[in-house]
Amino acid sequence: MFCCGLGLGIDRPDRPMAVIQRQIVMTYLKLLLTAFFWGGTFIAGKGLAGHVHPFCAAFLRFSIASFFLVILVIRQEGRLPRLYGRDVLLVLVSGSTGIFAYNLFFFSGLTMINANRAALIIATNPIFISLFSALIFNSMIQFFGIRQCHNIGKCKGWSSRWYNTNYSS
């Protein structure tokens, strides 16, 4: 079935099909809502960018999201996970660069360009991360199941399955 990777327990015969179908519908509804709210942040951010300083907007967005995430974790796990030693520093650095800095640049950018261009720029992040990862760290890039690499010597015959060529040196 098409949703075996969703963790819905489809392979369990004791689950009624109505329960499985309801879980599938809820999964796709959650995915749809995620895309809806994620896309809505560009429109809301553009409206906010003209009235609030980008630093304040980033701080408010980070604070509100942190508050609700803490509540969600406590509700799901019963308590916050315990951090030891260096983990505290790593969490703080990750939060301040990966989340707070992203929001700061997001709101700063929305003061300069319109929301649809900002959304297009953000949507290219995975592409550029993959390309720079391949160029800087010599990692493989995979498009539609076809692995590609900027350095044929590192790929060692990845294309030999299709072109009957041998690039091993």
How much of the residues is beta strand, in percent? under 5%
Radius of gyration over C-alpha positions, nearest whole angstrom? 22 Å
Q: Which structural category do the helix and sheet elements fall into?
A: mainly alpha
* Count of individual beta strands: 2
Q: Report mean pLDDT, rounded to a whole number.
A: 77
> Uncertain spans, ≥5 residues at pLDDT below 50?
1-5, 150-169
Q: How widely separated are the two ends?
A: 43 Å
Form type: extended
How many helices in DSSP terms? 7
Overall description:
It comes from Desulfobacter postgatei 2ac9. Mean pLDDT is 77; it is low at 1-5 and 150-169. With 169 residues, this protein is mainly alpha-helical. It contains seven helices and two strands, in the order αααααββαα. It starts with 16 loop residues before the first helix and ends in a 6-residue tail after the last helix. The protein has one domain (4-123). Strands 1-2 form a two-stranded antiparallel ribbon.
